[in-house]
Amino acid sequence: MHTIFQEIGFEFKRASGPGGQNVNKVSTASVLKFDINNSKGLSNAVKQRLRKIAANRINADGVLIITSQRHRTQGKNKTEAISKLLALIELASIEPKSRKFIKLPLYDKNRRINAKKITSEKKINRKKIKY
What we know:
The chain has helices at 2-6, 21-25, 44-53, 74-93, 106-126; strands at residues 8-13, 29-35, 63-68. By secondary structure, it is α+β, with helices and mostly antiparallel strands. The chain has one domain: Double Stranded RNA Binding Domain.
């Protein structure tokens, strides 16, 4: 994880919302930028899952952008953005369970088809009768 912290870039901008004069003159909102493609701290599988999880936060260059402007200070917004990134990486590091395909028993298959036939007949009987 140490190399991930070295790969993070920050920009600070003015936050929107309430806050009086503080909002207008101090750049407290933090924008975290993390280049997923060139990251050495993540495996290829984690990178792929991270791209899938955070697809709407990744720009055309493959850079993950996370913004934080909840707090009134730069430091708190910076730590919140880092914690958001770590939460995404933690979520991406969990391997999804592979589905085990099993053959459906013939009895269950026939029961399902019969239930579908009954439902179909109910719906056919609801139609208006044409004379």
